[in-house]
Amino acid sequence: MARKQKGKKGKKTKSAGRFGVRYGRKIRRAIVSIEERTRAAHTCPSCEQPSVRRIGTGIWQCRKCGYTFTGGTYIPHTAPGISAKRTVSRILERSPELTVEREAKSGGD
Asked: What is the per-residue pLDDT across 76-105, written as a single tens digit (0 to 9) for each?
């Protein structure tokens, strides 16, 4: 009688291999992509070190400097947040009176 060869497990399924055959292929693939993005190295906005970890839903903390901040559920910086930050920096860059007011406020502290 021929023996079945045991194939490698985990190459395709990655972290969703724990679900076995349950829940369907599309859902398991979506989970894999979310978990890979969540567990990837993220840089701290304070110290610029790639040591940010997720400590809760939308709560992120840098292990190096201890800086805690809010962000997206699965990644620390969401696409709308990045877009808003870029827009604010453009507005501040184009209008010199806002920049002067901002410098005056920070200089008075």
From this structure: 999 999 999 999 999 988 887 766 666 777
In the chain, at which residue ranges do the beta strands (DSSP E only) sit? 52-56, 59-62, 68-70
Looking at residue 18, the DSSP 8-state letter turns out to be G
User: For residue range 5-26, what is the model confidence (pLDDT) as tens digits?
Assistant: 665 556 788 999 999 999 999 9
Print the domain residue range for 87: 78-109
Euclidean distance between CA atoms 33 and 55, whole angstroms: 19
CA distance 20 to 7: 14
Residue 82: inside a domain:
yes
- Please say whether the dihedral angle defined by the alpha carbons of residues 14, 16, 19 and 20, taken in this order, is positive or negative: negative
